[in-house]
Design a protein that fits this description.
Four copies of one chain form a homotetramer.
Chain A lengths: L15 H7 L2 H4 L3 H17 L5 H19 L12 H13 L1 H4 L7 H33 L8 E6 L2 E7 H26 L1 E2 L15 H7 L4 E2 L3 H6 L2 H27 L7 E2 L18 H24 L13 H25 L1 E2 L1 H6 L8 H10 L4 H18 L8 H7 L13 H7 L8 H18 L1
Amino acid sequence: MSAKAWGGAFSEATDPRVELFTESISFDARLALVDIRGSQAHAKMLAKVGLLTNEEAQQIIDHLNEIGQQITRGEFEWKTELEDIHMHIETALIARIGDVGRKLHTGRSRNDQVSLDLKLYVREALQRIDEALEDLQRAFVDRYEQDREIILPGYTHLQRAQPVMAAHYWLAYCEKFQRDRDRLRDCSKRLNVLPLGAAALAGTSLPIDREETARLLNFTDVAANSLDVSSDRDFLAEAIFSMSLIAVHLSGWAEEWILWCTTEFGFLKLPDAYTTGSSIMPQKRNPDVLELIRGKSARVIADVQQILTLLKGLPLAYNRDLQEDKLAFFDAFDTISACLELAPSIVRLAKLRADKINARLEEGFLDATTLMEYLIQHGVPMRTGHEVVGHLVRLCESRGITLAEMPLADFQAVNPLIADDVYGWLGVKNVVAKLQSYGSGGINCIEEQVEEWRTRLRTEG
Amino acid sequence: MSAKAWGGAFSEATDPRVELFTESISFDARLALVDIRGSQAHAKMLAKVGLLTNEEAQQIIDHLNEIGQQITRGEFEWKTELEDIHMHIETALIARIGDVGRKLHTGRSRNDQVSLDLKLYVREALQRIDEALEDLQRAFVDRYEQDREIILPGYTHLQRAQPVMAAHYWLAYCEKFQRDRDRLRDCSKRLNVLPLGAAALAGTSLPIDREETARLLNFTDVAANSLDVSSDRDFLAEAIFSMSLIAVHLSGWAEEWILWCTTEFGFLKLPDAYTTGSSIMPQKRNPDVLELIRGKSARVIADVQQILTLLKGLPLAYNRDLQEDKLAFFDAFDTISACLELAPSIVRLAKLRADKINARLEEGFLDATTLMEYLIQHGVPMRTGHEVVGHLVRLCESRGITLAEMPLADFQAVNPLIADDVYGWLGVKNVVAKLQSYGSGGINCIEEQVEEWRTRLRTEG
Amino acid sequence: MSAKAWGGAFSEATDPRVELFTESISFDARLALVDIRGSQAHAKMLAKVGLLTNEEAQQIIDHLNEIGQQITRGEFEWKTELEDIHMHIETALIARIGDVGRKLHTGRSRNDQVSLDLKLYVREALQRIDEALEDLQRAFVDRYEQDREIILPGYTHLQRAQPVMAAHYWLAYCEKFQRDRDRLRDCSKRLNVLPLGAAALAGTSLPIDREETARLLNFTDVAANSLDVSSDRDFLAEAIFSMSLIAVHLSGWAEEWILWCTTEFGFLKLPDAYTTGSSIMPQKRNPDVLELIRGKSARVIADVQQILTLLKGLPLAYNRDLQEDKLAFFDAFDTISACLELAPSIVRLAKLRADKINARLEEGFLDATTLMEYLIQHGVPMRTGHEVVGHLVRLCESRGITLAEMPLADFQAVNPLIADDVYGWLGVKNVVAKLQSYGSGGINCIEEQVEEWRTRLRTEG
Amino acid sequence: MSAKAWGGAFSEATDPRVELFTESISFDARLALVDIRGSQAHAKMLAKVGLLTNEEAQQIIDHLNEIGQQITRGEFEWKTELEDIHMHIETALIARIGDVGRKLHTGRSRNDQVSLDLKLYVREALQRIDEALEDLQRAFVDRYEQDREIILPGYTHLQRAQPVMAAHYWLAYCEKFQRDRDRLRDCSKRLNVLPLGAAALAGTSLPIDREETARLLNFTDVAANSLDVSSDRDFLAEAIFSMSLIAVHLSGWAEEWILWCTTEFGFLKLPDAYTTGSSIMPQKRNPDVLELIRGKSARVIADVQQILTLLKGLPLAYNRDLQEDKLAFFDAFDTISACLELAPSIVRLAKLRADKINARLEEGFLDATTLMEYLIQHGVPMRTGHEVVGHLVRLCESRGITLAEMPLADFQAVNPLIADDVYGWLGVKNVVAKLQSYGSGGINCIEEQVEEWRTRLRTEG
C-alpha cells in the first residue's frame, strides 16, 4: 500500500489481481524516454517560476537522465504494483534524491502527464512513418528505369480496360502515400498543443508557466481548457485513422501484386527471399508477406473502431477507460511500421515479367477507347462513337481478331469517317503514345511525372 | 437495352433484378445539382479546347440549367434502368438536344465524373457542418451570462474531483468542436484536387485542359495520376472519420447531460419541448433527444468501419464496390446534420438548477487538491503534501465534516505549517478563486477564455 | 400535444424538430403487421384473464385486422407526430372504437411491445434468409451435371496448389452456407422467448398470463426478468452477426468469381444479363453484381459494429439509444436479402470455360503433392519425400517441363524407389482419381457428397 | 534455408526481416499443448491405417509428451526462423527420433493442423469462459440474502421509473450471462467438427481414417469438404462475437455500478481493495476496475471487426491473411478472461448503501404506474388512467408532495373511483408487494426466481 502514490486516504491494500488488471506498465514502459523528457522540461519550468530551486531542478534532470540510461540498458526493474511508467520513474527518482524527487509532480497530475507523453511519442512515431512512406515512394519511383519499356493493362472491375505505362501504377501508389503523408502532417498540428499544466482536470492554483514548458518541448501552442485536456484523445484517434488509410493503401497494393504473382496473371516475380513454401506441397512459392500486409490492414482498421468505441459516451473529464487508448495506438503503429519496413524491399526487388505480360497484352481490346476518341476527333459525337466501337468490338470478337487486325474496308463499312491513319491509334503501343491528358498513363506524361517525383523526393530526403 | 449508355457490345438485355440491385439513383439523385455544375464546367472547358463549339457548350449549359430546375421542382422522373444520376441527366440532355448532348461525355467517364460530383458534394456538406459546429460553439459561449455564478463539480472517473466554473464545461466542448472544425478544414485541402479528366483510369488522347476545369470549379489543384483518381476514396473516408469524431464528442456531451438530468444528479432541467414521455409511466420526462444523439454516434462510427472495410484489398483502379461509398457518407452526414441541428437549441434552453447543485457542492472534498497546493506553496514536497491531505481527508470522513469545518488546531497537529489563512483556500468558492493556471477552471481564466471565444466567433460569423 | 400518448404531465408542446429527430415511423412502419399480430394475441390474453371482455377483445382484433389491411393497401396515413408504429396503430384503433381501444395497452408498455414486434419480425426474416440460403445451395449442387468433367486448380495463397473437381468448389460454399443456416437456427432459440408482459421494466401488478400470450404467438418460452427484457437486444446483435458471416461468405465467393472472370484466369463467363458495361470503354463487360455483393458485405460488417457500439455501456433498463437498433438490423437484412436474391441465378447461369481452364491446367505442378504421397506409400518419410519432390520440381522448372514429362530415368536418379507406375499418379486427371480421403476434392468423394447434398436438400425443401 | 520444412524448391535464403514479419511463434506458442495432442491422435490414426507402425506411433507419442513437458517447464527454445508452433514441435521431434519424426506430417498439412489446434484451443477456452460466467452468476445470486430488504429505483432513460427489488437487478444480469453461455454452447457444435485430414486444401490420396481421429479427439463430426476446411474461420468469428456480447453485458453492468458509486447516486460502496486513488487529488477513490471493464469492451468489439474484415473477400482456400485470426481471438479471450476473473469478487464485495438509497427512494413518483394499474383494475381504460395519473403527478409536483401524501379528497376530485384503499398501492414498498406478473421485480417473483437460479446453478456446478 505504501508503494502507491495515492495511498493516503485508503485503509485497505489493493487486491493483487486488481493491480494486475489495472497495471499499464506492461505496455506503457515504451513511453519511458518521453516521460523523462517531459519531466525534465517540467522541472525546468518549475525552477523558472520558483517552485523549485535551480539546483533542485538540475538534480532532477541529472537523475532522470541516469534513470533513462538505466532503462535503455535494460537494467530497470518493472513492478506491477507500481502501475505505470510515471510511478516507476518518479519512485526511482525519490529513491535516489528523496524530498527533491517528491517535488517533481508539483502542478501536474498523471492525467496531463500521460497526455503529454503520448503526444511526444505519437509525434515521433508519425515522423518515423512519414520517413518510411517516403522510402516506399522512392522505391516505386526508382523502378522507373527498369520498367521503362513495359506497358501494363489497366483495369476497372478487374477487367482489362486501357493500357498504361507500368510506372503509371507505381506513381498511383506514390500519390496515395503522399496524401497519407499530408494527413500525418495535419495530424501533427493538433499534436503540437501542450497538455501539461491542465493538472488533474481543473488546472492549478500554483503559478506555473505553461508557455515555457511548450517552448522547451517544441510545442507550438498551449491547450486552453483543462477539462478538455483531461478527456481529449482526438489526437490518438486521428493518428490511428491516418494509419488505417495507409493500411488500406498497402492492402490494395498487396492484393494487386498477389494477383500479379498468380500463374494466371504471371506479371510479377517476387524474389525467393520474399516468398515462403508449403509444409505439404513441394512446388509452392507463396507471396506470404503480401498476404500478411493485406491481412494486417484489418487490425489497423479495427484499431480505429476500438478507439472510437472506447471514447463514445464518456463524460468529462478523465475516465480510466482511456488507459486502453495506448493499446490501439501501439498496435496500429507497430503493424504499420512492420509493413512499411518490408514494403520498399519488395517493391525494389520484384521483377515484372515482360514476356508474360506482352504475350497477352493485345487481349481485351485495350485500344477500344482510343478508337472512340479517334472518332470524336473526327466529329462523331462521343455517345455515337461509343456505340460504333461497341459494334466493332463485337465484330472482332465474333471473328477472333483484334481491332488492329480489322481491315480498313470493314471499319469504313461501319463508319466512313475512319481512314487509314486509324491504325496509328490501335494496338497498345500506339495507345500509350496517344494518351496526352495531364495525369494520364501515356508515355510522355509518365516521364514528366517521374521527373517531378524525383525532384520532390530529392528535396525532401 | 438501348437505354444503356454502354449497350453496344451486349447481345442480351439486363435482368431487371440486376438493374434493381446495381442501381444507385435511389441515393445518388441527391448529387443532381453538383453533377450538373460539373458537367457545365466540363462543357466550357471542351469549348475552350475546341472539342465543342461555343454554341454547343452554351446549349448544353442552358439545358442542364433547365434540367436542374426540373429536378429541384420535383418534376424529373427517375428510372431504375437508367442506373445513376449521371445517366439520367445525360439521357435527358440528349432527349432535348440530340447529338450535341451526345458530345458532353467527351474526354471523361463516369469514374472521374462521380469522383468530381462527390468532391463537390462533400465540400459543401463539410461547409455546412462547419457552420453548424460554429453555431453550437456560440450556443455554449452564450450560456456564460446565465451560468456566470454557478460552480460545478469537476469529475474524474465520475468521482467528484475539483470544482470548476460551469462555463469551463461549456468551453471544453468548444475546444473539441474547434478541433473538429480544423479537421474539416484539413480535409478540404484534399477535396480541392480536381479528379475530372482522369477519364476511366488512363486519361485520354483528347486535348482536354484540366487546369481550366479546376479553375471553373474552384479547385486548387489537379490530380496527377488517373489510376489513383479512379480508385481514390480517401477523401470520403477522411470526411466520414472527421464526422465520427464529432459524433463521439456529441455522445460524450449527451451522456454527461443525461446524467445531469437524473433525479440523483439533478443539475439540469431540459425544457418539456425537448423531452418525451412514456406510454405507460405517467410521470416520466425522458431526455430522448440526448439519448438518440448518443445512440446515433454508433452509426457514424460504423460508417467509418464500412468505408475502410469496403476499400480494403481493392486492386487498381475503379471497382464497382465503390458505389457503396456514398451510403456511408450520406448516412454519416445526415446523422451528424440532424444532431447538430438540434444540439444548439438544447444547449441554449437547458437550465442549470443552482439550488440542487449548490445543495451538495461541498460534498466530495473538492478542495483537497488546493489544500495540497497550499502546502506546496509553504515548501512541503508535493508527494508529502499529498499524503498529509490524504490523512486529513480520512480524518474528516470519520468525523463527517468538510475540510473547511476542520479546526485549525487539528490541521496544525498534522502539519504545523498550516496557518489561519488556510481557510481562504478551502470551500469551492475559494478554490475557483485560487485556480490560476492558463486553461484552468478558475473564475478569472474562464472570463478571459470567454472573451477570446466571443472575439473568435464574432470574427468568423 | 394531445396526440401524444404520454402528454399528461407535460406543460409545453414538443418542438416539431424534436418530433422529426425522435420519430421512428419512417423505418418502423415495416413492423406494422407484426405489431398487429402481437396486439391481437395480447388482447386475447387480456380477455382470458378478465381484463377485457370477450366482446372487447374481438372488437379489437377485428379492427386491428382492418387497420392491417388498410396499411397493406397503402391507405394508411403516417404522421411524424405519432412517433412510431405502435402509436399509429393504437391511435387508429381508438379513433375507431374509443374506450375499448384505450384498453389495449393494459399491462404492457412500448418497451416490451417493440421487443415483441422485433422478435416476431426477425423470426420471419431469418426464416426467409434460411430459404434463400437453401436455394443458393441448391443452385450450387445443381451445377454438378454440367461441370461433371471439369477439373479446376485448387489454390492456397492464390497459387496453384492441387487439382480438385469443379463441384468441390460448389460444395465448399454449400458447407459454409449450411453453417450459416445452423447459426440462424440457434439464433431462433433465443428469439422464441416472449418479452411481452415485462411492461416498462418492472412487470405489472395486473393479473396477466404470459404463458398464454407465448402460446398464442408460438414462443417456446417466457422471458424471466423484466429489467433484462427492457434492455435486451442480444437477439438483434446475434441475428446481425449471423448475417455478417453470410455476407463474408458471399464476399469470398464474389471475389473468386471476379478473378475467374478476368481475361487472365478466363475460367468463367457470366451471362450478359448479369454484367454491365462502361460509359466510356466500349468493350467492357463488368461483373458488377459480384463486385457489389463483395462491397455490400462491408455494410453488414459495419452493422455488427453499430449494434455492439450502440449497446456498449448502457445501464439498465430501456434507453432511447435502442431505437437505432432497428436501423442496423433492417440494413443488414435488406442487404443480405438483395444479395441472396440474385446469387442463385448467377450461380446457375454462369458457364465454366472448359477450353480456357484445360489449356493451362497442367501448369503449376498440381500433381507434386500426389507424387510426394506416392513416395510416402513407398516408405519414404513424408519430410524426405517433400524434399525429393521439391528437388524434382526445380529440375522441371529449369527444363520447362511438367512432372509427367520427366523421363523415368531422371526420376530414378533422384530416388530409385520411383517406378514406372508413377505416371499413373501424375497429371491432374490422375490426381483427382487418386484423392480418396473423406472430404477430398477427388472424383469419387465428390460424387458421394453431391448425393448426400441432394438428399439433404430434397428432404428439407 | 535448411531449417525450413519447405525449402526444397528454393534457391535463395529467406530475408531475416521476412522471417520476423511472417513468424507466428510469438503468439501461437500457446497452442503448443493442443498441437501435441492433435499430433498424437494423428499418429495413432496413422498407425491404425498402417501408414506408421505401432512402434513408430508410440515413439512419436512419447517424445511429443516429453516435448510438451519441456515446453511446460519453460525449457523449450523458440526460434523465429522456425516460423510457428507446428514447425517447432516437428523439428524437435525429428531432432529426437529422425526418420520416424519425418513421418508425422503424413496426410496432413499445416492448414488443417492449425485449424485443428485452434478448434481444440477454442473449445477449452470457451469452456473456461463458461465456468467463469457461472461463477459470476453465482456471485449475483449469492447477494440475495444481504440485499433481501433493499428496494432500488428501476430506470428507463436513466430516469426513475418504477421500484424493483435489488435482486431483480442481479437476476437481470444472470439472464444476460445465461444467454451468453447458451451461445457458447451453440458455438461448440460447430467447433466439434474435425478439420484434420483436409490436408492442404484437396484431401489426400493416402488411406487416412478421419472418423478415427475425430473419435480420439472427442469431435462429434468430420468436416466434409477440404476446400471449406482450409478457408473456414467461422468458428473463430463466432467465438469472438460471443465474447463481444459478454463484453457488452459487462460494460453495461460496469456503467451502472460506476453511476451507483458516484456521490450523486451513492447507492454502492466498493471495497478499497477494488478502487484506486489519484496521483494528485488526495481524496479520490476511483472505480478503476469497472471503468477498465467498460473500456476493454471496446477491444473485444474491435476484435469482431478485425476477424470479419480479415475474412472479407478472400477466395478459396487458405490465404496467409488467416494467420492474423489468432490475434483477434487471443486478444478477445484474454480480455474477457481478465474481466471475468475480477467481476465475481466485485459483485460479492460491493455493499449497497441502504441509508442513501432509502433517503431518496420516494422521489420520482415510482408508484405512478401502479396507481394507473389501480385505476385499470377499477375499470378505467388504460389510456384514460394514464392521463389521470399524469394530471395527478403534475399536481403533486406543483405542491412538492408524493402521491402517497396526496389527500383522498384530492384524488377523488380527479377521479371518484379512487377509494381509500389506494394508499395500499402507493409508496415503493406497496408497489413491490403488488407487482405480480411472471418476471416482474416484485418481492414474490424475485423469491421464486432466486430459488430457480439456486437450483440451476447447484445442478450445473
